[in-house]
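Bug #77: duplicate submission created two jobs. Keeping one. Sequence:
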Amino acid sequence: MSFNETVISEMRALFSPKLPLDKLIDNVSQELQQRLEASNVSMLPTCVVNDLSLNTIVKSLEGSGTYLLAIDLGGTTLKMGILSIPQFQMVYHQSLDLPHKVVNLKFFREIASWVCEKTHEFILLKGLSGRLTFLTGITFSFPLNSRNEITTMGKGFTIAEEVTSVSIQEVLEQSFEQVLVKFDFKIQFYGVINDSVAVYLANKASTEEDGISLILGTGINSC
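Kept job's structure:
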């Protein structure tokens, strides 16, 4: 037996599971449940997503002058999209490169300013009138603790001390509140979730058959 074959044989013996497949699946399921309940650092949402039909919710808002606004902060590109109700169709979307890698209060105010300017642009483009409300969800593809605080950020970002112990949702809400005084529309926040959860919910809104989502990016995560 060659040296390479010996090494492979020893590694196979060392790492091959000693338990049957059904027991391994059970153990993994138990460990995931334990981490979901006990972990302080997670890519999971820090709120409970109830098993409700999103289509039912948005249809109840038909004719209310309300739109859905999605904001995606997942890396070096900031994205936003506006969806119509009750068709649940994307009617406007924009993206912005983020050259500044220091994550501080100014960073979030600039995000709020850009999103509000693009939302105002959409209102003018569509010739809309009246006091519009945008129900807003945010995907944030970095780990948060149970208090929605940023714990770490990769992809070249550096976290400033002024945002290390503050809820990311509170920071965003305050940033938008400061900017919105210049605009004639409202933004109502509903939560901050991971991108894999956002993809899962989007799939569930369009078809009840989808049961899993998978993100292939700088890292891999699923829901």
